[in-house]
Design brief:
This protein has 455 residues and is mainly α. It contains 17 helices and two strands. It has a two-stranded antiparallel sheet.
């Protein structure tokens, strides 16, 4: 096996910049586009799908996103198994990424296309189909992509480095997604609100497609990864993955984290516009501050994780993030200037974002390696798929909760409840993570390393 250089890590990480940009576009702007605030309607936006609650307090956009996320979660084990068992000459991961990168970018644009004018059930159904395809294509790219992480980082300390690289590009991609109102504003007078938004998504999707092709075209998988396919069928492999006790503890914690984070990310444009009172084009500025500050903390996180362990830092980040969510719940009510209020949310959030952007992926890679040592079976793809399953389950529940709760009361009262709920959920995730036995996992890895040296 060749040594993984920083150049290879950056080539790998650029792929994450691409898919995180596409993911950010949908996560951050889907609800904002299809359930516009009055301020955006005044700027020229119209409604394309059924508005308001339709059944048991649920909205159309909430039901659509929940259905798609649950479908997405179910496809993860299937794609992971296909990747783990792949016998392609170019490896188990790269062939999947290569075939789906461009379709993934194209379907992102179609998510924001409505074939009928005005509110229509035809638009509801079209959005449901496009969003189902979006999440399927994202799974086909991201599940094999994430499975390469433990292959490029053979040791726990190396995986922290890999996670740091991809976390940088994840934040950059997410930050770019918040530029949509700024760029769309350039075209709004000539194209109208909706079309200017769609053109901007198209520009970003094209850029994302190029980024996602970089690792496909520059990395030869067999130089760095064990391409021996697993022989375990999909759901047998999933069962074996969840039989790992330490992994179950991590996943339980992760569900609550993604519940909280998705509510915060989906709500961020609303918090900025409705609670704080800033225009939507300030969203990028505030997220750019969050990104820049997070990058400042990356080096300390990398250093302290190697000295103190990942678990302690992640638990601390959960607690701190809960405070940030609670602070956001009172945004606009503390007598602070609007921009200062927004900047404080961004700066405070950057600290836990730095920790949680790097370390959870590295924890999964540790557990996957320890399990591989104990069982003799390489199922990295399934471990990351199972983690993604937890993520998407949390995101599905979060979208239902957010879209239902945000309409409670008047003057943003429901939005404040969503932020407060995110604080409680995140704190719960941190408490659950306390049961994860990091020492047990690292002991397995270290013992295998010692035996290898003696051999």
């Amino acid at each position: 096996m060749k040594k993984v250089t920083n150049k290879v890590l950056w080539q790998f990480a650029i792929g994450q910049l691409g898919w995180s940009l596409l993911s950010g576009i949908v996560v951050n702007w889907l609800v904002f586009f299809y359930e516009p605030e009055n301020s955006e309607i005044k700027l020229g936006q119209t409604t394309f799908i059924t508005q308001g609650k339709i059944l048991m307090g649920l909205t159309v956009i909430g039901c659509i996103t929940a259905i798609c996320r649950l479908f997405d979660a179910v496809t993860d084990p299937y794609i992971a198994s296909k990747s783990d068992r792949c016998t392609h000459k170019d490896g188990r991961r790269i062939p999947f990424m290569r075939v789906i990168a461009i379709p993934f970018a194209a379907i992102t644009v179609l998510v924001f296309i409505s074939p009928f004018s005005g509110e229509s059930w035809g638009n509801n159904i079209f959005l449901l189909i496009m969003l189902l395809l979006f999440y399927l294509f994202m799974t086909i790219y991201c599940t094999p992509y994430n499975a390469l992480l433990p292959e490029l980082g053979k040791e726990p300390k190396d995986r922290i480095n890999v996670s740091t690289f991809i976390s940088v590009t994840f934040f950059v991609g997410s930050a770019f997604s918040y530029l949509i109102p700024n760029i769309a504003g350039i075209f709004r007078d000539s194209m109208g609100y909706a079309n200017s938004f769609r053109v901007t998504v198209g520009i970003m999707a094209a850029f994302a497609a190029v980024c996602m092709m970089v690792p496909v075209l520059t990395i030869k998988e067999s130089d760095y990864a064990d391409t021996t396919p697993s022989e375990t069928p999909a759901f047998d492999s999933l069962g074996k993955t969840f039989s790992n006790g330490e992994f179950r503890k991590f996943v339980a914690s992760d569900i609550f984290y993604w519940l909280a984070l998705t509510m915060f990310q989906t709500g961020l444009p609303f918090y900025i516009v409705t609670l704080i009172g800033l225009p939507s084009d300030k969203t990028f500025f505030l997220f750019a501050i969050m990104t820049a500050m997070s990058l400042v903390f990356y080096a300390p996180v990398n250093i302290f994780a190697k000295k103190l362990g990942k678990k302690k830092l992640v638990m601390g980040a959960f607690i701190f993030f809960s405070f940030v969510f609670l602070f956001t719940a009172f945004a606009g009510k503390l007598g602070l200037p609007k921009m200062l209020n927004g900047v404080l949310v961004s700066v405070l959030a950057s600290i836990p974002m730095a920790v949680l952007g790097i370390l959870p992926q590295a924890i999964v890679a540790d557990v996957a390696q320890a399990d591989s040592i104990k069982t003799g079976e390489n199922r990295e793809g399934m471990f990351f798929a199972a983690r993604t399953f937890a993520m998407k389950l949390g995101q599905a529940l979060a979208m239902v909760l957010f879209t239902s709760i945000k309409t409670i009361g008047e003057n943003g009262f429901g939005l404040r409840i969503t932020a407060a709920a995110a604080a409680v959920l995140c704190l719960t995730g941190g408490i659950i993570l306390g049961a994860y036995n990091e020492k047990k996992v690292t002991a397995v890895i270290e013992s295998a390393g010692t035996e290898s040296e003696e051999g």
